Amino acid sequence: MVGIPDSLPARMYLLAYDTTKRRMTRRGARLGYVLRGAALTELYLDGRLVEERHGPVPGTPGDDPYGVLAQIAASRPRTWRYWVRKDGRAIVGTVQDELVRDGWIRVRTRKVLGLFPRDEIEVKDPRVVKVLWGGVSSALRGRPVAHVHSYDAAAVALAAAGELRTVLPNTDRRRHRRRIEELTARTGPAAPAVRRVIRQQRAAASG
């Protein structure tokens, strides 16, 4: 039986990997937003974050593997979008280091044009990604929404919000729009915040 990482950010990082082209399909800020959204969603689903006045506040004490809960506890009230945007690039490195440490991926650094360092990511066992894809596919097409595992529902919501096309091509996002909305509603406010942040980023770039 093929295992998968326990944490939702680690799962979303692996879902951004294209096993055919053997490379990441998302990098930089966009991937960071998805991973921050995943960290927020994980805390929300476990009750460590709750919503108050359209933003997250600490709930039940518990683990804080990515330091997000501590940031929120030390801050004045902020929106979900603020916390999705904050430290997006930093969490990419944190999750990547976690996956290397736990043996899921290997990272090689090479220089582009002989000058600029760039990480090349390799998932050691591509079957792990396929198992995660299977969870997304099952959540989209299988059992009633109320019975879908919360992390599979969250993976669908975050993949749709982050436009991870290897997981959810545009055709699937359109075909399963209502189902995606229902799964997103199950997983809390972070995934919609990811979607809004990415749309704002796109609008700013085209404006």
UniProtKB/TrEMBL annotation:
It is found in: Golgi apparatus membrane. It comes from the Bacteria. It comes from Actinomadura meridiana. It is a peripheral membrane protein. Pfam families: GPP34. InterPro entries: GPP34-like (IPR008628), GPP34-like_sf (IPR038261). This is GPP34 family phosphoprotein. Signal peptide: none annotated. Gene3D superfamilies: yeast vps74-n-term truncation variant domain like. The keyword Membrane applies. Keywords: Golgi apparatus, Lipid-binding, Membrane.
